[in-house]
């Protein structure tokens, strides 16, 4: 299982199709664990042909199709190294066709780990019945700013921490779990600063 912060593939598989990894990362923190669990990493692959193997299969099929004994051995013995090299070049060219490339499914992604943009992690301390909280989370989501939401009604110890730092109004927006530059309420100007 891989951490979302260590994912560097171009696409993620969602169980039905591939999605751009960057698009998934932008909304990762607004997803619940079940939604996150469906994503898998991918890696690029392509078909590969070996001239020797392809010719062996071709000569064997020819012998069976035409019903001529020893055709396989004769064709194999008459194949020169030069011909084998030219044929391999043609097969390599086929392997470079766009349709010869495909994506394979890789690792599961740990759904319990939040995505962090660079070294910055935004935490929004909120409550469900709080309109400024809703507006703040909506702003962050619409502007593709990943954040972790802490519902203080479900985590009363978080509310105690906010009070210890002098915050009595929700939401409280903190960066990197520090309250040094945290702010409270719906403040679009300060939220816009997070876009920089």
Salient structural properties:
alpha+beta, 196 residues, four-stranded antiparallel β-sheet, single chain, four-stranded mixed β-sheet, rod-shaped
Task: Report the β-strand fraction as a percent range.
Answer: 15-25%
Report helical residue fraction. Answer: 25-40%
Number of strands: 8
What oligomeric state do the depicted chains represent? single chain
Structural class: alpha+beta
How much is the average pLDDT? 91
Estimate the global geometry from the Cα principal axes.
rod-shaped
Q: What's the story with the biggest beta sheet?
A: 4 strands, antiparallel
Order of strands across the main sheet:
2-1-3-4
Tally of alpha and pi helices: 8
Helices and strands, in order, run as: EEHHEHHHEEHEHEEH
The N- to C-terminal Cα distance equals 32 Å
Description:
With 196 residues, the protein is an alpha+beta fold. Helices cover 40% and strands 21% of the residues. The strands form two sheets. Strands 2-1-3-4 form a four-stranded antiparallel beta sheet. Strands 6-5-7-8 form a four-stranded mixed beta sheet, sandwiched between helices. Helix 3 packs antiparallel against helix 4. The chain is rod-shaped, with a radius of gyration of 29 Å. 14% of the residues are buried.
């Amino acid at each position: 299982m891989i951490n979302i912060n260590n994912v560097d593939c171009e696409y993620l598989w969602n169980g039905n199709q591939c999605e751009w990894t960057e698009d998934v990362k932008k909304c990762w923190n607004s997803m619940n664990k079940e939604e996150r669990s469906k994503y898998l990493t991918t890696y690029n692959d392509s078909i590969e042909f070996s001239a020797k193997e392809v010719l062996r299969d071709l000569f064997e099929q020819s012998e069976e199709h035409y019903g001529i004994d020893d055709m396989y051995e004769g064709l194999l013995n008459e194949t020169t190294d030069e011909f084998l090299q030219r044929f391999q070049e043609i097969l390599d060219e086929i392997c470079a066709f766009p349709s010869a490339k495909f994506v394979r499914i890789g690792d599961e992604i740990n759904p319990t780990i939040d995505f962090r943009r660079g070294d910055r992690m935004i935490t929004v301390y909120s409550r469900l019945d709080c309109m400024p909280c809703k507006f703040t989370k909506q702003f962050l989501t619409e502007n593709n700013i990943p954040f972790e939401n802490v519902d203080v009604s479900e985590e009363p110890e978080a509310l105690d921490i906010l009070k210890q730092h002098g915050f009595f109004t929700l939401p409280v927006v903190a960066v990197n779990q520090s309250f040094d530059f945290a702010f409270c309420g719906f403040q679009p100007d300060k939220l816009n600063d997070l876009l920089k």
